[in-house]
Amino acid sequence: MTCGCTPEPPRINSKFRTALWIALIINAVMFLVEFIGGTYANSSALWADSLDFLGDAVNYGISLAVLGLSLYWRATVALIKGMTMAAFGVVVIGKTIYAYTQGIPPEAITMGIIGVLALIANFVSAGFLYAFRDGDSNMHSVWLCSRNDTIGNVAVILAAMGVFGTGSLIPDMLVALIMSILGLTGGYQVIKKVIKERQDHPK
């Protein structure tokens, strides 16, 4: 594509739009499930993952709003999403430090059940979004959100097993830190791609 104002092929936009709606609904529902479950289980990892689900749902909604705009403006929105992903990483680090000061181990069974449910939900989302992972920065940021969630869910399940076996909050904290790193690195990747696209396709 030689001009930022050239529209995407309608067929591709239609498929991407459908995938985004599915992912948005899944993430909104899982935000409620994990937020309530994480609060009940006193789990930093579940609580952090619930905020990630909420952020992704908002990001998918934003992506739907800019599908018909030029590459420059799609990249601009992706920049906001990239910064949000990085900010999420910082927030999770803060929440993990707070959990450490409290010293209360989470409830492992609840963690495990919700972690498995979240993993299934994210596999479905990732499956719909996989075909668009190599698109522009907006599509790429959407794929990274889904990919990071899937990795995070596997880590939550492993943390639940660790908490169950040791009775310690350390596994929960380690997973929360892993998720924060995913947010920081994912945000960096998106921001880096956005800068290049905005330079190559000025307004």
Describe the structure in your own words.
The radius of gyration is 18 Å and the shape is elongated. The relative contact order is 0.18. It has one domain. The two termini are 14 Å apart. The protein has six helices and no strands. It is mostly helical. It is found in: Membrane. Pfam families: Cation_efflux (PF01545). InterPro entries: Cation_efflux_TM (IPR058533), Cation_efflux_TMD_sf (IPR027469), CDF/SLC30A (IPR050681).
Low-pLDDT segments, ≥5 res: 1-12
Secondary-structure-derived class:
mainly alpha
Number of helices: 6
Largest sheet: none
Number of domains: 1
Alpha-carbon Rg, integer: 18 Å
- Kindly, what is the distance between the CA atoms of the first and last residues, rounded to a whole number of angstroms? 14 Å
Order of helices and strands: HHHHHH
Task: Give the helices and strands, then pairings.
Layout: H1 10-41, H2 44-65, H3 71-102, H4 108-129, H5 137-166, H6 170-200
Name the descriptors.
83% helix, 203 residues, disordered N terminus, mainly alpha, elongated, 6 helices
Summarize the structure.
The protein is mainly α and 203 residues long. Helices cover 83% and strands 0% of the residues.
